[in-house]
Task: structure prediction
Amino acid sequence: MYRENLTERDIPYEILEKHGLTHEMIDDLPQSVMNKLLHGEYTPLLPITMKTDMGEWQYLSRISLTTTNNGVKVVMKPKIESSSIGLYSPEQQELLKQGKTIIGQRPKDLRNNENTGKYFIQYDEDTNQVLSVPTSAVGENIRVLSDMLGLDYESIKNIQQGEPQTVEWMDEEANDDVQMLTFGIDLRRDLGIRFAVGDLNEWLGQAKDFKEKYNFGLYGVWIASEDGKSGRYVPESEYTDEIREQMEQARKRNRESAQESLKM
Result:
C-alpha cells in the first residue's frame, strides 16, 4: 500500500495556518504524531478554526497530508455530532461501540436493494463515524499475514470478528530474539490492520497519540485529553503556574535520563 514519505519541509504550513494551526503548533506536535503526519496517516483530533462571514467556528478534526499534482494538500476528517451508527441494529451498535469489527452490508446499500458485497465495519468513536471497507481488501492482507505467521483458523476468525491476536515471532534484526506481536483490524490504517510489538495492552496503548499529558515543544505545549486522543495547544506566553511546574519536572526527568545514559 502507498504511504507518503514527506519531510517537515513538505508540510503546507500556509494551508494549516488558515485552519488555525500555526507553524509553531505543528512543530511542537509530539514526535509520534509528527511521524503520522509525514507518512500520510491521520493525526489525533486537533483544534481547527474556520473563519466565516458569521465569525470564527471552532471544532476538532483529524488531519492528514496527501501529495497531489498541485503540491501537498491537507485532508480533514472532522468530528461530527450526528452519527450514522444509528442506522445499524441495536445488536450491531453494541458490538461496534465495544470496539469490535463486524461483517455485513452497509445500511445505504440495503435501503437501495444493492448487493455490493460484504464489508468490514468499524466505529471510530473519536469522530463518531462508521468506517467500512470491502472484506476482500482487508481479507487479502489477513491471508498474507496468516501465511507469514502460520495462523490457525480460530485466530483468523477472531481477527475478522475484531479480536486482536497475540503471537510469538522471531525478529531477525534483533539477534533472532523471540518477541510478542499483537495485531488486529483497524480500518483507520492503510492496510486495514494495525501491528504492535508487545501484548494486547501495547496494541491498545497505540491509540493514545499523546502519550504524555504535557508535550512541550520550542514554542508552547500540547496538553492531552484524558484519553490521549486529542490535545489543545497553549503558547508559552500563556503558561500558567501549573504548566511551568510541569515544564520544570519534564526538564528534570530529561536531565536525569541523560545522566543515566552517560553512565552506561
